[in-house]
């Protein structure tokens, strides 16, 4: 084995070791967790400081989530000042609140002071008003002002997510002065990719990327290499819209400005990635009929998040049932109708859900707009008719053969074509109308679409059968 | 109005102007589009170069998508060398392929040479093998080698998404030498936030952030400020797993290394943001029963993406129908059963979908693992039983009153409790088992869960009724 190979192997091993808190499936490994649990039980602070305190915030967050309920605050207490509060931004809200409530307020205050402002705001914003005021009052003046400024912006706004630490210099400084300033100032943000250029009242004039400072000679003035600020973001803009700006223009960070064009903070891509995730998560959950539920929620919270949707569904289910009730005599004379009617409804429900899924996503990503709406509606009509005819034939064959009644097959085929077409139209028009009316199509489309396909499915099938067989 | 106010207003107007290609809803504005269409029709190249060629790639992409089918390749031809091919990475695949096929191969080759390697690969990877080889053969040698290296990595791997342009320096250089090198080298990437430190064989030794170079004096050696490379990514790693590393550790960029630890490229957060989006999109579509469908797909493609799922659903619908068929005599004697049975099935289907949505998401984000699976199963059992009992009572009241038959209410209540519990168990156990078996729970859970709730709903309700009323 050559020297080089050995080195490679050694390096590979080292890399392995830095990740051994996880098992192969990406969960915290059982051995690591057992060691931590034991150390907590034995109050072995030295072990915890050695093995846990230096983990990356997200790793620490995973460990906290994997621990049992009582060990979590115990771990935080044992680590004391060594506990990186940032880890709490990586855990479920319920767990975060539990831990914060159990912390002595001095530890919380001193830990908060050490955080970047965006992380501190993230932790503070979930607390009750009184508790938050209490903690803010104990913070040093400048910290307090910074955090209060962020907290004064609306929930889920860019101002809430921004970091208030940034580097800003006047336009008449040279590259050399700027580099020296950065070398000497200790109060810089942890890492940054651009510096901002401001006038004496902090109005934003432009920005300079770090790599262009590095490529420029010392005597050049900042204003000579300054570029227009890419898409400054209004502090009151909703975080979802801010994320769309980041995505559209591939930004790494963006200046956040107040109503007067004054620089108040920086929004960075890592916060935006979290926002993108939250928003996609929200859409998926809303389409599935669950509210703002988290995995750590208990039975009561989970029931609360799902109850409303089930209640609405009960109402619509009885609506469909009453459509069936209209035809009870027909069913009494031909039981096969009762057997086949759920097939028609179910096929419509699924086809409608398909169209709705495509529509809701296209609206969320702004791919669906006035230019293509007409084309997409025509396309969905085509898909609905085509699938309607094909599945009408298939289902007619099976049903006709099953009940030895070709006419029944014809009736189910006619109902299928009607319902599959209705499903396609409901699947696209309902989300479009909800969106136009200002409602979130993800949250409410599902119930309208499946109710439509159930009602039309039952009504067309039972109605056509009643008319055709004259029963 | 003060001088300052005026200036603010003026600046606001300028900002407005840079965005006036969009209307208030975020779609390309009708006026702008009409101007472009007219210029294309009149072959007004000057207008197009002025108004369209300088748009940001994503804005240009939006304009292309908003144009009608024939105008798109015409616009690209008219812009000639002024057309930024990067815009094609921002449009739907179908539109991209149409435009590329219509481009003269010289224009395509020269435009590809101007792109960053990751964008060039993105465009090349969708082409047919022969066409791709053809274009690669016409590229300059170094470009060809670079792109081929990326294209040799598996589809959807980090190697495919990486940029092969990066800055790498030896450890014995000083900060001053490094800054001078960056000032003089013209062949640097467009923008970058870290530089890499490599040995003569390009094995990765470490990295230095640009801001730490800026804060360090010129005579300091790179190896003194070099840090361990954060989570270097194996070029063959799947892009989804690479994105998870970025998210977990809040990375802005990461080194991509081959099997021998040699630096082959850089993966940047903007590519990762796209991956995160694609993956969330994929989950939503799979849960909704649509395949890899795009909004620009025509009827044939859309039918193809949805047909399979509808076919499976037809099979399961007949399965549920045959369960009903078992009880045709009971239904003949008591038509109310046919009216109420869809209510039981529908409530179960919705409750099961809720649990399934939570489970599938938790599996995708790795929040659900061996530590909390047992707890979550217990929680879902609790939610299922609680909601089962509550809705059993509500539905029993309505049904008993409707049919003036309290015993029928009791029967429907019993069936509801059974089915809501079954829904909760199916909703969590089916995705867990599919995940364990290596299948994507998003793609296949839905059909299994709703089939389970339909079959159990019909069977329990009709079965209990048959037994209780002795029919």
Q: How would you characterize the overall build of this protein?
A:
Two copies of one chain form a homodimer. Mean pLDDT of chain A is 86; it is low at 1-18. Chain A has helices at 3-18, 30-41, 45-51, 57-66, 71-79, 93-102, 105-113, 117-124, 129-138, 141-152, 158-161, 175-184, 210-214, 222-225, 239-249, 269-287, 299-326, 328-333, 336-364, 373-402, 406-436, 441-468, and strands at 168-169, 194-198, 204-209, 233-234, 253-257, 263-268. The first copy, chain A, is mainly alpha-helical. Helix content of chain A is 65%, strand content 6%. The first copy, chain A, has three domains: 21-161, MgtE N-terminal fold (Alpha Horseshoe), CATH 1.25.60; 168-287, CBS-domain (Roll); 299-468, Tetracycline Repressor, domain 2. In chain A, strands 1-2-3 form a three-stranded mixed β-sheet. Chain A is elongated and about 90 Å long. In chain A, α19 packs antiparallel against α22 (441-468). Chains A and B meet through α1, α4, α12, α13 and α15 of A and α1, α4, α12, α13 and α15 of B.
How are the SSEs placed, and which strands pair?
Two copies of one chain form a homodimer.
Chain A: H1 3-18, H2 30-41, H3 45-51, H4 57-66, H5 71-79, H6 93-102, H7 105-113, H8 117-124, H9 129-138, H10 141-152, H11 158-161, E1 168-169, H12 175-184, E2 194-198, E3 204-209, H13 210-214, H14 222-225, E4 233-234, H15 239-249, E5 253-257, E6 263-268, H16 269-287, H17 299-326, H18 328-333, H19 336-364, H20 373-402, H21 406-436, H22 441-468
Helix pairs in contact in A: 8-10, 15-16, 16-22, 17-22, 19-21, 19-22, 20-21, 21-22
Keywords (chains A, B): CBS domain, Cell membrane, Magnesium, Membrane, Metal-binding, Transmembrane, Transmembrane helix, Transport
Domain CBS (chains A, B): 226-282
Subcellular location (chains A, B): Cell membrane; Membrane
